[in-house]
Amino acid sequence: MILAALALLAAATAQPPAAGLGAGPLAGHVGSGEHRLAPALNAWIRLPLGHACFIESAALLARRGEPSAAATFQERWMRGEVGLGCATGSRAAQVAGSLGPALTWRHTELDAARAWQADVLAAGLRWRGGFLIPLGDRAELDLLAGGASAGPVVDFDLLVQGGMRW
Amino acid sequence: MLSLPLLLAACAPPEAARYLAWQRAQDGVYAVAPRDLGTLDDLAAVAGAMGTVRQGGQVMLEDDGGMAYTGSRALHVGYDVQRGVAVPLDGEGLLLWSFYAHLEDIAAELSDHDLDPAEYLPVDTAWTPVIPDVLLELLPQENAAYATGGHFFILLADLTDKEVPLAANAGIVRHEFGHAVFHRLTCGAPLAPPPYDTADESAGSLYYGSLHEGFADSFAGLTLDDPEFIAASLDLEERRLDGDQTLEGIELPEDFLASAEEDLLAIYDPYALGSVIAATAWDLRTALDDPDRALAVLIATTRAWTEAGAFGDAWGFLRIWAETAAPGEERDALCTALRTRFGEHAPAECDP
After folding, report:
1. Quick one: closest CA in B to A111, which residue?
2. Cα–Cα distance between B33 and B22 in angstroms, integer?
3. What are the phi and psi torsion angles at A98 (to 5°)?
4. Which among B31, B88, B162 has the least Cβ separation from residue A31?
5. CB–CB of A6/A135 below 8 Å?
6. pLDDT, tens digit, for every residue of B200-219?
7. Does the distance separating the beta carbons of B56 and A71 come in below 8 Å?
8. Residue B225 CA to chain centroid, in angstroms?
9. What secondary structure letter does DSSP report for B14?
10. Terminus-to-terminus CA distance in chain B, angstroms?
11. What is the ipTM of this complex?
């Protein structure tokens, strides 16, 4: 199994450095134990590490409003993350996976008779996997799914991200 | 690796002395405001002396007609503490804290109504469980329920935005707690099976269901002293305790069962007859200007009716109600209400 993985990595196309932006839904954990969808934006950078592996870093922002007649919640997720990963595949498309630490800041503003706010910072593990699709020599499109723990809870995300290679 | 637990510890919220919850003022207006921590020991898990709110899992019908809750998971409500007040990170956390707070308010009043809190508490709550059995007949608008025979509450997320979410409405929590009281009074213990299986559609079962709803509405309205205890969440004119409901035009169980033979999809509405019973209890409260006394008479009636052992005899309930009221002003007021609301079904004890 390990030998097969090493062989795949050895055959893989080397990872060029790249950076870009992404967007997609975040399924953020809420107090009830459910996951509510919120639109997310993602800025990322990936640098090669050896032949087929890479180190990547990203910042993700998501926002969800929950208005009602008597109380309005504005919830924001802000996550910084670093991951070590590897990719394998052909020039047309590669499969990639990465794992690393994340720090999630959850900020909520509650407007009800008077204003309240809550801020929680929690460390956790972040994982991501998906496809890296080169668009010519200088651009790429990534389809990625992943998640991150934040203390005792877990958020999930699905991202379509584009970037430039150099 | 060592820094991770240190970071987590550094981010744990400080101790809170109070927490935010939906609260109802005397005038029936709701506001989100801090309240004392009280018995809520674990804000994240929503757990304390009133019980524990758990999420997920399944609610199943048992062979004896009761309900069981299995496979649930602990909650993790995120919150921060601002000036000693715990502030939830989302509306769901606020809703569940509010539900717990309303339970605590009810518990503080039970002994005033000759009810022993230890017989009802702690009571756990199932938040958004899967309910695979269609026989449970939880209609879409029923986002809160009491599981008879299982002694737990069921809460589902609101399908539409409301001024006050259902589970955060003190009147609705009291209505559901009223079901727990009625079950305890008529069945002897919280975990005792109900006298009728959920699937039983005999006239006796349907009358019992209407008395359940009537008692629950009365309990909510009289303990809050508010005839519109639902209004902050649901606009249900027909459930106003001070409405003009009478038996006229209401489909009684015998009529329903006759029509149901032709319409297999027909569903009996237990609230229609139940709201006439609750309106009668409110009439007594209005005549006496005493909600506690009106509730005391209703509770004593339920106890006496249970001893008589005829759960399907709704008209017997009215007779015992009239007998239980103290002779004089109280009985006269109740009989006036019974004659007005129930017409020919008013008990002979109330004949002028």
Report:
1. B32
2. 6
3. -150, 160
4. B88
5. no
6. 778 888 999 999 999 999 99
7. no
8. 15
9. P
10. 84
11. 0.86
Q: Does B164 touch chain A (CB under 8 A)?
A: yes
Q: Report residue B244 as tokens.
A: 């003009």
3-state DSSP call for residue B284? helix
Nearest by CB to A123, which of B7, B32, B80? B7
Q: State the pLDDT at residue A4.
A: 55
Which residues are B180's β-sheet partners? none
Check: CB of residue B37 under 8 Å from CB of residue B110: no
Cβ contact B90–A122 (<8 Å)? no
User: What's the longest Cα–Cα distance across chain A?
Assistant: 63
Helix (H, G, I), strand (E, B) or coil at B236: coil
Separation between Cα atoms, residue B225 and residue B212, nearest integer Å: 19
Using CA atoms, how far residue A86 sits from A46, A81, A142, B65, B187, in Å, is 11, 16, 14, 56, 64
Task: Give domain limits for chain B.
Answer: 200-352
Residue B239: φ, ψ to 5°: -105, 0
Give the bridge partners for B147, in sequence order. Answer: B152
pLDDT in tens, chain A (166 residues): 554 554 555 455 667 899 999 999 999 998 888 899 999 999 999 999 988 899 999 999 999 987 766 788 999 999 999 999 999 998 788 999 999 999 999 999 999 888 999 999 999 999 999 999 999 989 999 999 999 999 999 999 999 999 999 9
Contact B224, B177 (CB under 8 A): no
Q: Helices B203-224 and B314-324, interaxial angle, to 10°? A: 40
Q: Give the pLDDT confidence score for residue B9 in this predicted structure.
A: 42
- B6 by Cβ neighbours in 10 Å (0-12 / 13-18 / 19+) ranks as exposed
Question: Minimal Cα–Cα distance from B132 to chain A, Å?
Answer: 19
A93: CB partners within 8 A, 6+ apart: A131, A132, A133, A134
B316, two tokens: 């017997």
Given the structure tokens 């006394």, which residue do they identify? B293
- Gap between the Cα atoms of A116 and B19, Å rounded: 12
Task: Encode A14-41: b = buried (16+ Cβ within 10 Å), e = exposed.
Answer: ebbebbbebebebbbbbbbbbbbebebb
Query: What was the pLDDT predicted at B8?
Result: 46
Counting as low any pLDDT under 50, the low residues of chain B are 1-10, 139-140
List CB contacts of B66: < 8 A, sequence separation 6 or more: B147, B148, B149, B150, B191, B193, B194
State the Cα–Cα distance between residues A18 and A136, nearest whole angstrom.
13
